[in-house]
Design a protein that fits this description.
By secondary structure, the protein is α/β, with parallel strands linked by helices. It folds into three domains: about 5-170, Molybdenum Cofactor Biosythetic Enzyme, Chain A, CATH 3.40.980; about 175-250, 2-Layer Sandwich (Alpha-Beta Plaits), CATH 3.30.70.2860; about 255-415, Maf protein. The chain has 16 helices and 17 strands. The chain has helices at about 10-15, 20-30, 45-60, 75-85, 95-105, 110-115, 155-170, 190-200, 225-240, 255-265, 280-285, 300-310, 315-320, 325-340, 385-405, 415; strands at about 5-10, 35-40, 60-65, 90, 120, 125, 135-140, 145-150, 175-185, 205-210, 215-225, 245-250, 270, 295-300, 340-350, 365-370, 375-380. The strands form four sheets. The chain has a six-stranded mixed sheet with strand order 2-1-3-8-7-6, sandwiched between helices. Strands 14-13-15-16-17 form a five-stranded mixed sheet, with helices on both faces. Strand 16 and strand 17 form a beta hairpin.
């Protein structure tokens, strides 16, 4: 099956919005054995849209058009596609019913602008949108199945998962095996080198892929009609990556930590300075986290470290805010104030200013543990301010994950980020 993507919108051409939707679609299709044959991005230009709709449908089995389904005058997908297909526009009763229900649920009155989203090419079929106001639709053009999708990433993701992938799976190759592992602490070049050094010549029948991200890196294995070989090398990869694998399939560090805490019937608290509450925010973004998270403390100033967490002024005076002694007292204070089982505390210099010769920008001290034992580590994270905070947050969560799992081995990325 040859699949083409047509991404629309002036905001994509100007750089106001970064295209993440095509990557999302490609990833989902890859998992079921389908690949994108070509991708075209076009602004809100009537002639260009019409030309590409006609051309792409002549050379592909499926065309997915992303964007242009909204209520404004520059949302042109339905109108232009009707022109190219040679059919009139008409108000679609199913799309109108969806709009009315969507507005009622939110206490809105259906406006003429919103009603435009129900004016679709005559004879098309609706693709439900369970989150947004704009339904998708599909029709046949030049013997090509044209599927239209919303540009909002969260809406697209749900529509792909619930509607479009089940539709396309019938055309995917049979015998596709796909596994994905989420890892933390190893870069893709390091993993590739480990594979080359320790697993030897890689079988041509197996596709090994990586998707770099912050904080997790995806390691993907895909094969076609090779179940024995697939399982054999999947096991080899698991053994090779070891405790750097945080989950199989889709997952994030915070959700894993919340799940582990729930299983143990225990709770976590955070004491944060340089991360500004990001660790707590990650934890509380997980549904059900209230069962395991009592409180988090953002103590940015020295005075608040003393007032809120009981860090001794003498400790701050003698050792400074970014020190092993301070983060230990922060962790102990958070445990005491919140009556939690576990704590993670961080204090560092996110930059771009504030560093010294012995504590350069990027220096961070982390403490984690419980009332019985607090562990500490100094790291040097050579990133910009946002990268520093994202990585520090992920490291804090990973250290708690390892503690909850009883992983007592030396953490490999400590040497990678040593001062």
């Amino acid at each position: 099956m040859k699949i083409a993507l047509l991404l629309t919108g002036d905001e994509l051409m100007s750089g106001d919005i970064v295209d993440s939707n095509s990557a999302e679609m490609a990833q989902m299709f890859f998992e079921i054995g389908l690949n994108i044959h070509c991708k075209v991005t076009v602004g809100d230009d009537r002639a260009a849209l019409a030309s590409y709709m006609a051309e792409l449908t002549q050379h592909h089995d499926v065309l997915i058009i992303n964007g242009g389904l909204g209520p404004t005058q520059d949302d042109l997908t339905a109108e232009i596609l009707a022109e190219v297909a040679g059919v009139p526009l008409a108000e679609h009763p199913e799309a109108l019913a969806h709009l009315e229900a969507w507005c009622t649920q939110r206490g809105f009155e259906l406006s003429p602008a919103n009603r435009k989203q129900a004016i679709l090419p005559a004879g098309c079929d609706i693709i439900p949108n369970s989150r947004g106001s704009a339904v998708g639709f599909n029709l046949s053009l030049n013997n090509c199945q044209v599927l239209t999708t919303p540009g909002v990433p969260s809406e697209l993701r749900i529509m792909l998962r619930d509607e479009i992938l089940p539709m396309l799976k019938a055309h995917a190759r049979e015998g596709i095996l796909f596994d994905k592992m989420m890892t933390f602490g190893l870069g893709e070049s390091r993993i590739q080198q480990m594979v080359s050094d320790q697993l030897g010549t890689w079988p041509r029948a197996l596709d090994l892929g990586f998707r770099a991200g912050m904080p997790l890196l995806e390691v993907k294995l895909r094969s076609h009609n090779e179940p024995v070989l697939h399982q054999q090398y999947l096991q080899k990869l698991k053994e090779l990556l070891g405790d750097h694998i945080v989950a199989e399939g889709h997952a994030n560090l915070a959700a894993i930590v919340v799940d582990l805490l729930k299983r143990r019937g225990e709770s976590l608290t955070t004491a944060e300075s340089c991360t500004g509450g990001r660790i707590a925010a990650e934890i509380t973004s997980v549904a059900g986290s209230s069962a395991v998270f009592n409180a988090g403390f953002v103590t940015y100033s020295n005075q608040m470290k003393t007032d809120m967490l009981g860090v001794a002024p003498a400790t701050l005076e003698q050792h400074g805010a970014v020190s092993e002694e301070t983060v230990i007292e922060m962790a102990k204070g958070a445990l005491s104030k919140s009556s939690s089982h576990w704590a993670v505390a961080v204090s560092g210099i996110a930059g771009p200013d504030g560093g010294t010769e012995d504590k350069p920008v990027g220096t961070i001290w982390i403490a984690w543990g419980n009332n019985a034992k607090i562990k500490t580590q100094r790291l040097h994270l050579r990133f910009d301010r946002q990268g520093f905070q994202r990585l520090a947050t992920a490291i804090g969560l990973d250290l708690i994950r390892r503690e909850l799992l009883g992983i007592d081995r030396t953490v490999s990325y400590f040497s990678r980020y040593k001062l």
